[in-house]
Design goal:
The protein is mostly helical. Helices cover 77% and strands 0% of the residues. It starts with a helix and ends in a 29-residue tail after the last helix.
């Protein structure tokens, strides 16, 4: 009886974790699009800076004040050699996502972002010479095909937004791959990752945002008809961006890998549907079909990866070969920090 109750609670906790993750993710995407489209605040670098600063403050409160997560200690030398390069890629990834949101609909942007598994596999194969089972390559076909159909039939196509989203996929893949090399030896969760990376990301992006968008932001503040409510929405998007990172930590620890993969793809469908209901961007039948094919392909890809990892005797994908950056000795050599 007690085991049955524990099992039921585990299922309920997983469902709640997924729904709160969906809620924060979709809300952040919708609010960002609202900021660019409805508030006419067309400054993606400034929005990204606000998100970084809010996330840095939130991570500090969670770790240092509320002590909800233990701090993973990293020596200053490791911060510059390992975390700073990751922060640079992280910064590019966030900025490109916001730039794409400014120019293309949420539905199109989310579909292109689903291309990330393909870019990750291709980069690892081309640059790091990783081996992949033929079933992995086969699972990428519907992803690539669905995105091609979506791109060709997109009624609100914008070349700048398209390439921003596409290069955002490459940045995401690069971040994932580099994490293997640069962060080996550290059991980073999403909160500690935010704690260490967002100060660097703010430092990297602060000056370009000030130089490129500063005059425009000042002019927007001067001419905005409803300044107070607009600023509340913009600052609120930063708070929600941090909450999204916290929700990712919670959902990863509450679900299995397969559930997380399926939930991630369903999240895209939820985001596309919500954005269409709010912004009413035109979506053709073939565009919707292409999006559906892409999401099915992503789910199939995740299933194949999980199946291969669980199958005895299946050749394991070799780890990314250690390059010069990975051979940098760890300053922090504490046993409890080892993977």
């Amino acid at each position: 009886m007690e085991e049955s109750l524990l099992c039921q609670w585990s299922v309920i906790r997983s469902i709640l974790a997924i729904f709160q993750w969906w809620g924060f993710n979709v809300t952040v995407i919708i609010i960002n699009k609202w900021i660019f489209q409805k508030l006419d605040f067309k400054f993606p670098l400034s929005v990204s800076c606000i998100h970084f600063i809010s996330s840095a403050i939130g991570a500090y409160l969670v770790i240092k004040v509320l002590k909800l997560k233990p701090l993973i200690l990293v020596d200053p030398e490791d911060r510059w050699k390992r975390i700073f390069p990751m922060s640079f890629i992280f910064c590019i990834n966030i900025v490109l996502g916001n730039v794409s949101l400014r120019y293309i609909p949420v539905s199109f942007m989310q579909t292109i972002k689903s291309f990330t598994p393909a870019t990750t596999v291709i980069l690892q194969w081309l640059i790091w010479k990783k081996y992949f089972d033929w079933r992995i390559w086969a699972s990428l076909i519907p992803i690539v095909g669905g995105i091609l159909v979506t791109s060709v039939t997109e009624l609100s196509f914008n070349i700048l937004g398209f390439f921003a989203a596409l290069f955002g996929c490459l940045a995401t893949s690069t971040k994932t791959i580099l994490a293997e090399s640069l962060l080996h030896g550290f059991k980073f969760d999403s909160i500690n990752t935010v704690y260490y990376m967002t100060p660097f990301a703010t430092m990297i992006l602060g000056v370009p945002a000030l130089l490129l968008e500063g005059p425009g932001v000042v002019e927007w503040i001067r001419t905005c008809p409803s300044l107070f409510s607009s600023l509340i929405i913009i600052l609120g998007s930063g708070v929600l961006a941090f909450c999204l990172n916290f929700s990712i930590f919670y959902v990863i620890h509450s679900t299995t890998a397969v559930t997380f993969n399926v939930a991630g793809n369903l999240k895209v469908a939820v985001a596309v549907t919500c954005s269409w209901l709010i912004f009413r961007n035109p979506i053709s039948v073939m565009n919707a079909v292409g999006c559906a094919i892409t999401l099915v392909g992503c789910t199939f890809y995740g299933y194949i990866r999980h199946m291969l990892s669980q199958t005895p005797g299946t050749p394991r994908t070799p780890r990314t070969p250690r390059g010069i950056t990975e051979l940098i000795p760890l300053v922090n050599e504490k046993l409890e920090d080892k993977v």
